[in-house]
Design a protein that fits this description.
Length: 150
């Protein structure tokens, strides 16, 4: 029997009544942290792409409806209704994008601060070591230059 992989990713659990929409990235026991996070990232990217596509399509349709030509009252009313529907769809997409942004900001704020601090400290140590090494090399080159002049 396969071992359950150890992971630091909290797995989302839904109530049985909350499974109205199928989830493409439902965590499996065999899925490691990197695969799970990649699936979640892909899910977020698909949501954002879908909403941006809706905004772009709506804008294209609004521009095409705005053509000036000989139109009777029925055609004008029909195009006004279509424009209103497209604008409402674009507003829903914009609100959805704002909601996605809010969720991502919360995830960033509530993420593991210790891991972020550890990465920052490790990077600082590496940069400090590189700086010290560069100072030593410059000092050696300066000494060689001063010795060669004397």
């Amino acid at each position: 029997m396969a071992e359950i992989p150890q992971t630091d990713v909290s797995r989302r659990a839904a109530l049985p009544t909350a499974s109205l929409l199928p989830r493409s990235s439902a965590p499996t026991i065999d899925q490691n942290s990197d695969e799970y996070l990649a699936a979640i990232e892909e899910e977020w990217n698909k949501k954002v792409d879908g909403e941006v596509d809706t905004l772009v399509d709506g804008m294209v349709d609004l521009v095409s409806l705005a053509s000036i030509a000989d139109k009777d009252k029925f055609r004008v009313a029909q195009e006004a209704f279509q424009a209103q529907c497209r604008a409402e769809s674009m507003i829903r997409s914009a609100h959805s994008l704002l909601s996605i942004i809010h969720s991502m900001k919360l995830m960033l704020l509530l993420s593991d601060e210790a891991q972020i601090a550890n990465r920052r400290d490790a990077e600082l140590r590496v940069v400090t070591a590189e700086k010290d090494e560069a100072k030593k090399k410059v000092a050696e080159l300066l000494d060689e230059l001063l010795r060669s002049q004397n």
